[in-house]
Design brief:
This protein is an alpha+beta fold. The chain contains two helices and eight strands. Strands 2-3-4-1-5-8-7-6 form an eight-stranded mixed sheet. A hairpin with a 5-residue loop joins strand 7 and strand 8.
Length: about 130
């Protein structure tokens, strides 16, 4: 017997990866590798973080003490992080960190939130909130 697929009616759509974070043990060495060896375009540094452009996706290199297999996080772009957070919480999703601003850019604020999938993988939501 098969179970019919359930259609989820929701404005939350995880269809675009906005950023991938790779944790590294040596941030300076990794930055040098991605920039000079792989030829990736460095967008900016923020403390010990380095951000590179990779097509439409941003790659973030960050220091991490986690084991090598647990250092990568996919960040999904959402248009309204507060609304997405509320909708997912209503579905029973538990968040590690609720939406919070992490950077103020000249034309927008960058907001992030973190949750776990059923397998324990960390997923990020990101939203670029335009200044009024």
């Amino acid at each position: 017997m098969t179970t019919p697929a359930t259609t989820v009616q929701s404005p939350v759509i995880f269809d675009k990866i906005g950023q991938i974070a790779i944790g590294v043990s040596d941030a300076a060495r990794a930055k040098d590798f991605y920039q000079k060896v792989l030829g990736m375009k460095l967008l900016f540094d923020a403390d010990s973080l380095a951000f590179f452009q990779c097509g439409e996706v941003r790659l973030m290199i960050s220091p991490s003490d986690a084991p090598p297999g647990e250092r990568t996080i996919l960040y999904f772009r959402v248009p309204d992080i507060q609304q997405a957070h509320a909708a997912l919480r209503a579905r029973g999703v538990e968040f590690i960190q609720p939406p919070h601003m992490v950077a103020r850019m000249p034309d927008h604020e960058l907001w992030l939130a973190f949750l776990k999938d059923p397998e324990g993988n960390t997923l990020g939501m990101m939203s670029e909130v335009r200044a009024n």
